[in-house]
Design goal:
Belongs to the class I-like SAM-binding methyltransferase superfamily. TRM61 family. By secondary structure, this protein is an alpha/beta fold. It has twelve helices and 17 strands. It folds into three domains: 12-103, Vcp-like ATPase, Chain A, domain 2; 107-299, 3-Layer(aba) Sandwich (Rossmann fold), CATH 3.40.50.150; 315-370, no CATH class.
């Protein structure tokens, strides 16, 4: 359920200053938020409404401040103090008076700021999986590869308490990180989540056949998991696979076609570019989030039914490798051509005509090849 009303202990808050810098903190009794421009006691945030503004308090560098914001004694001779005397502007950064807007973090903000061990999927890729993978409330979803829990949190939120999510994570420490992040976000371990640890093929054997509406794979070799996925997914179910390299993507797509149990895979990537809008200064930001991964989407055919695939033209052999050719083979025999003979003759006629017109007017000689 969405949280409303005043902020309370045990909630995460997001502090954003006028420059867009963000700090995320979990509210605790006696806690304090350390910033480069002073401190913010948690007591000043607890009971505050979202959309409020809080100002940092002075954090004198002549005292050591513990995690609860309590001075623990003088530290005037500490290396930091001596360092600050040489650089007085550093002391000014701790005098307080800097303002932050207070909000509850969005799910995307929570994911980007949460503690993690494995690399997480970016929100732009997660959104693509949820939308193109058609993951909705009440669905039964199988996920392989929890990582730090970024995708898991979104799947749990999407299917809701009426649905069910089963996640298989190979590494126990990653499973623990994902579980703890979910507990912090939902205020406890979600009851509609079954988090399992072990090898995907081994654990999946204990899952019910044709039980899952959707399957999400985020792993190194998803093509090796297709047999188990076909056994577990319902006919018409959607498989979404996230891979980072072109070789992974190509191998997965070709294996899906070879097995014949999947509709023609849809492959896409999402590139994010933010914009600066300030009066008449409207332009893209200099930095952007480019390639992070490929999303491969396909639907499961019914058992024993062969998928329909587009037939490639005979003149376009995209599979033969010229390095594998025997000495007696030629490029034409391998059909490594992207242009038909008819199109080639038309191009030559057009070019010969144009060259003849140009040379007849300039007197530069006969066109080459005529």
């Amino acid at each position: 359920m969405p949280k409303r009303g005043p902020l309370c202990v045990g909630e995460k808050v997001q502090l954003t200053d006028r420059k867009g810098a963000m700090i995320t903190a979990l509210l605790e009794d006696g806690g304090v938020v350390q910033t480069q421009r002073g401190v913010i006691p948690h007591s000043s945030l607890i009971g505050m409404s979202e959309g409020s503004v809080v100002t940092t308090q002075s954090s004198e560098r002549s005292f050591a401040v513990d995690r609860n914001g309590v001075p623990s004694g003088a530290a005037s001779d500490s290396p930091d103090s001596i360092h600050d005397k040489k650089k007085p502007w550093k002391i000014a950064r701790h005098v307080g008076g800097w303002s932050y807007t207070v909000m509850r973090p969005r799910l995307a903000d929570f994911v980007l700021s949460m503690p993690r061990g494995a690399q997480i999927m970016y929100p732009k890729d997660i959104a693509q999986v949820l939308t193109m993978g058609d993951i909705r409330s009440g669905m039964r979803v199988l996920e392989s590869g929890a990582g730090s829990g970024a995708m898991s949190l979104h799947l749990l939120d999407a299917v809701g308490e009426q649905g069910h999510l089963t996640t298989i994570e190979r590494r126990s420490e990653f499973a623990r990180i994902a579980g703890l992040n979910a507990s912090v976000y939902f205020g406890g371990m979600p009851q509609w989540w079954n988090l399992l640890t072990g090898d995907f093929d081994v654990v999946a054997k204990g899952c019910e056949e044709h039980f899952y509406d959707r399957v999400v794979l985020d792993m190194l070799d998803p093509w090796n998991r297709l047999e188990q996925v076909e056994r577990l997914i319902v006919p018409g179910g959607v498989l979404s696979a996230y891979v980072t390299t072109t070789t992974q993507m190509s191998r997965l797509v070709e294996m899906m076609r070879e097995r014949g149990s999947w509709t023609e895979p849809e492959v896409s990537e999402t590139i994010q570019r933010d914009w600066k809008v300030q009066g008449l200064a409207v332009r893209p930001n200099h930095q952007m989030i480019g390639h992070t991964g490929f999303i491969v989407i396909s639907r499961a055919m019914d058992v024993g039914v062969e998928a329909l695939h587009r037939r490639e033209r005979a003149t376009k052999d995209t599979y033969s490798d010229v390095d594998d050719a025997t000495p007696s083979q030629t490029l034409e025999e391998l059909e490594l051509r992207d242009i038909s003979d008819r199109k080639l003759r038309k191009v030559l006629r057009d070019l010969e005509h144009q060259a003849t017109v140009v040379t007849s007017n300039t007197g530069q000689g006969t066109p080459v090849g005529s």
